[in-house]
């Protein structure tokens, strides 16, 4: 069997694979070291470009299974990919802990006025009277109660927050006070102090945080997006933020990345911009490799794979 592995982790992964395998390293541009015509497995690395994906697909016509370390797969489900009968598995779960910790950080930064306090320190200004809040008894709405949403709820519940969530098939889950289906979350917006977007990008979720949804939020509500930029109508969000219709936002992801220097989001005083880094952690790499290797053993033994993507649903 031939396996295409990213050059970044060939040495770490190959140690745990059977010695009779042929490993074909691939770089970030899709250049493969060796003949991939009969390769069965492709493990792509982070930040996979469409051009790279298509180059590998052309070089590997016999590909049967592709694994990506990312949770989102909208960049992989191109028409070219969907023409092929390839099993796709993703990295759902490996980023959940660092992202959940970042969400708590965003909420605490807003509640405790950390940006303003940092600014005062820089100016050596001893200023009191800040409108500092508690997270206890505040209401958190998590749109997308999957693996990431559940890790967020676990940590938020420790602060004494009331937690609402939504998912396609709602069922009782630990740490959630209320769960609704994917169509009902809008009815909860007027009740939420914090709204976290943790839903995958699909045709159904694209642009769902629009002017109507934003108009349902409280003037003191804070929006956090750790999902995908295209889930949000950015023009509507900018208008809501600049006019004070909502209190502020923490945005880790945008429609265009890197966020262009001319973007008005950089200079909005009530916005915390981070460079799509909420999922970063050395442990994410460890979890990603462990997940691939576990799935490889399952694939070799013809057992069901973990994290198989529903290509029609988009996640």
Automatic annotation (TrEMBL):
Domain (D-isomer specific 2-hydroxyacid dehydrogenase NAD-binding): residue spans on this chain: 105-278
Keywords annotated in UniProt: NAD, Oxidoreductase
Pfam families according to UniProt: 2-Hacid_dh (PF00389), 2-Hacid_dh_C (PF02826)
Domain (D-isomer specific 2-hydroxyacid dehydrogenase catalytic) ranges: 54-310
InterPro entries: D-isomer_2_OHA_DH_cat_dom, D-isomer_DH_CS, D-isomer_DH_NAD-bd, NAD(P)-bd_dom_sf
PANTHER family attached to this UniProt entry: 2-HACID_DH_C DOMAIN-CONTAINING PROTEIN, D-ISOMER SPECIFIC 2-HYDROXYACID DEHYDROGENASE NAD-BINDING DOMAIN-CONTAINING PROTEIN
Family: Belongs to the D-isomer specific 2-hydroxyacid dehydrogenase family.
The protein, known as: D-2-hydroxyacid dehydrogenase
Organism in which the protein naturally occurs: Floridaenema aerugineum BLCC-F46
């Amino acid at each position: 069997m031939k396996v295409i592995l990213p050059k970044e982790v060939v040495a770490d992964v190959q140690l745990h694979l059977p010695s009779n395998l042929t490993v074909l390293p691939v770089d970030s541009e899709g250049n493969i070291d060796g003949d991939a015509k009969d390769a069965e497995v492709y493990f792509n690395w982070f930040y996979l470009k469409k051009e790279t994906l298509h180059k590998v697909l052309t070089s590997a016509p016999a590909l049967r299974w592709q694994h990506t370390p990312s949770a989102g797969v909208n960049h992989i489900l191109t028409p070219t990919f969907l023409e092929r009968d390839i099993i796709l598995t993703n990295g759902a779960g490996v980023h959940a802990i660092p992202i959940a910790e970042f969400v708590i950080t965003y909420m605490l930064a807003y509640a405790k006025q950390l940006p303003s306090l940092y600014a005062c320190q820089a100016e050596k200004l001893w200023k009191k009277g800040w409108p500092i809040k508690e997270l206890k008894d505040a209401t958190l709405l998590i749109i997308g109660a999957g693996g990431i949403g559940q890790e967020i709820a676990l940590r938020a519940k420790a602060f004494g927050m009331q937690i609402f969530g939504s998912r396609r098939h709602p069922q009782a889950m630990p740490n959630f006070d209320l769960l609704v289906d994917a169509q009902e979350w809008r009815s909860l917006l007027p009740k939420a102090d914090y709204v976290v977007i943790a839903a995958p990008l699909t045709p159904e979720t694209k642009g769902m945080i629009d002017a109507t949804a934003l108009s349902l939020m409280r003037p003191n509500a804070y929006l956090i997006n750790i999902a995908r930029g295209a889930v949000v109508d950015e023009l509507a969000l900018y208008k809501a933020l600049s006019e004070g219709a909502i209190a502020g936002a923490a945005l880790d992801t945008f429609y265009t990345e890197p966020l262009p220097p001319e973007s008005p989001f950089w200079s909005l005083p009530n916005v915390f911009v981070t460079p799509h880094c909420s999922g970063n952690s050395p442990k994410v790499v460890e979890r990603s490799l462990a997940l691939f290797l576990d799935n490889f053993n399952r694939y070799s033994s013809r057992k069901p794979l973990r994290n198989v993507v529903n290509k029609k649903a988009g996640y």
